[in-house]
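tokens incoming
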């Protein structure tokens, strides 16, 4: 896995096609989500001898994958890292973690808010059932007539929620996105013991080996 810094303005390729949306291929709408079996894990749930050399980004620990590039989405004005992006030949996965109630369901609270924001922007947000429960498939028309499709997955963990946004094939072809879902499964979230307001973003730390690559 390559590593580089990503500015917010960097584009992500997306063909905008909707071949099988809103589908439920491979979904488990009637199943109880078993995060310990499906991932992602909490840092306290990791086995000390699992043999995986993860990239430590503070609140997110990312396992390297072949043919994937690890990027940090940085706010250029403040220099704050806002999200982790895993990019591949057919799309990308954006990851953000947030503080959540110990036994709550923050994703169920956030999901309608996201749908309302998409509708306000003139787009549509459709619910579908996936590996981790209810997801959102959002489509917003861009300038020039093309559509940007984003598939958003929210996963509740112990005192955190992981928001996963898929672009490209992982969004437009969810029935063929097992390899992207496997990337989500491998993520580890480090919440920390500190008290935080519900919904506050967990800090992402830029490691020393990160470097800026100009486009």
């Amino acid at each position: 896995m390559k590593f580089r810094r990503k500015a917010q303005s960097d584009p992500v390729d997306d063909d905008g096609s909707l071949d099988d949306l809103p589908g439920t291929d491979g979904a488990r709408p009637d199943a109880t989500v078993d995060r310990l079996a499906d991932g992602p894990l909490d840092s306290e749930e990791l086995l000390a001898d699992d043999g995986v050399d993860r990239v430590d980004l503070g609140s997110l620990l990312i396992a390297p994958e072949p043919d994937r590039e690890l990027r940090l989405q940085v706010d250029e004005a403040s220099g704050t890292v806002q999200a982790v992006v895993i990019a591949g030949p057919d799309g990308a996965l954006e990851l953000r973690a947030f503080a959540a109630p110990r036994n709550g369901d923050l994703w169920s609270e956030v999901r309608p808010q996201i749908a309302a924001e998409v509708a306000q922007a003139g787009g549509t947000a459709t619910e579908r059932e996936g590996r981790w429960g209810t997801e959102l498939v959002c489509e917003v028309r861009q300038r020039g007539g093309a559509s940007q499709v984003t598939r958003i997955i929210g996963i509740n963990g112990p005192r955190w929620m992981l928001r996963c946004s898929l672009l490209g094939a992982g969004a437009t072809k969810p029935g063929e996105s097992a390899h992207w879902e496997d990337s989500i499964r491998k993520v580890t979230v480090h919440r920390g013991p500190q008290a935080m307001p519900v919904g506050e973003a967990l800090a992402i730390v830029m490691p020393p080996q990160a470097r800026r690559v100009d486009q």
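note: The mean pLDDT is 85.
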